[in-house]
Automatic annotation (TrEMBL):
PANTHER family: TWO-COMPONENT RESPONSE REGULATOR. Pfam families: GerE. PROSITE patterns: HTH_LUXR_2 (PS50043), RESPONSE_REGULATORY (PS50110). This is Response regulator transcription factor. CDD domains: LuxR_C_like. GO terms for molecular function: DNA binding. Residues 5-116 form the Response regulatory domain. GO terms for biological process: phosphorelay signal transduction system; regulation of DNA-templated transcription.
Length: 220
């Protein structure tokens, strides 16, 4: 199979940069042609890999817009939400595949190749598997990706109910992540958490990077 051209899509530059770094040892199989933080794909790509971090999950306008983009061959959702309804919604909205964020880099590449060939659409992880790579806002502060995602949505002004609708998490899980997040960053209220988020890069970015930028320390 020829090298797959992949565009990475999320609202946060640190997320797409981290995903690109995760794939860099597989350049003979996956060519990252574009990193889009809150921007449209404008280069020809076999696959647009839609990272679900702080984004609407599988039933969203963003996914339908990616599917409708004539430059994009297939859309693959990169998520930890494998609820039956979420997966079916993703496929109903035109996504060609759903891939777990818990897959190691080698298995992620294999999953993208499988979706590209049309062999297998759904690539979940093993039960209990954890996210092993990539990057996200607040990682250097000790936040897990799910804690960071909840904090990002809080910083954007979403209520707990709206966070549940966006992330696919249960309300009780959201409250648990909020409590653990507050402990890690040393705050005790939502207002303090929002201010901390403003100061530490938890608002969405708007930038487009070329793959050569991934190895340039000036963009980090």
């Amino acid at each position: 199979m020829k090298t797959i051209r992949v565009a990475l899509v999320d609202d946060y530059e640190v997320v797409v940069q981290g995903l690109a770094s995760m794939l860099r040892n597989y350049r003979d199989r996956v060519e990252v042609v574009e990193l889009n933080a809150n921007t449209d794909v404008c280069d020809v790509a076999d696959i647009a890999l839609y990272d679900s971090f702080a984004n609407p999950q599988t039933d969203s306008t963003q996914i339908r817009d990616l599917v409708a983009n004539p430059l994009v061959g297939k859309v693959v959702i990169y998520t930890w939400n494998f609820a039956k309804r979420s997966v079916s919604d993703a496929l109903a909205n035109g996504a060609s595949g759903v891939v777990s964020k818990s897959l190691p880099a080698a298995q992620l590449v294999e999953a993208l190749e499988s979706v590209h060939r049309g062999d297998q659409q759904i690539h979940p992880s093993h039960e209990g598997a954890k996210i092993v790579a990539g990057d996200w806002p607040g990682r250097e502060e000790g936040l897990t990706q799910r804690e960071a995602e909840v904090l990002a949505l809080i910083t954007q002004g979403l209520s707990n109910v709206e966070i549940a609708e966006t992330s696919g998490l249960a309300l009780n899980s959201i409250k648990t992540y909020i409590r653990s997040c507050y402990r890690r960053i040393g705050v005790s209220s939502r207002t303090q958490a929002v201010l901390w988020g403003f100061e530490h890069g938890f608002l969405p970015d708007r930038s487009r990077a070329r793959p050569s930028d991934v190895d340039d320390p000036r963009v980090r």
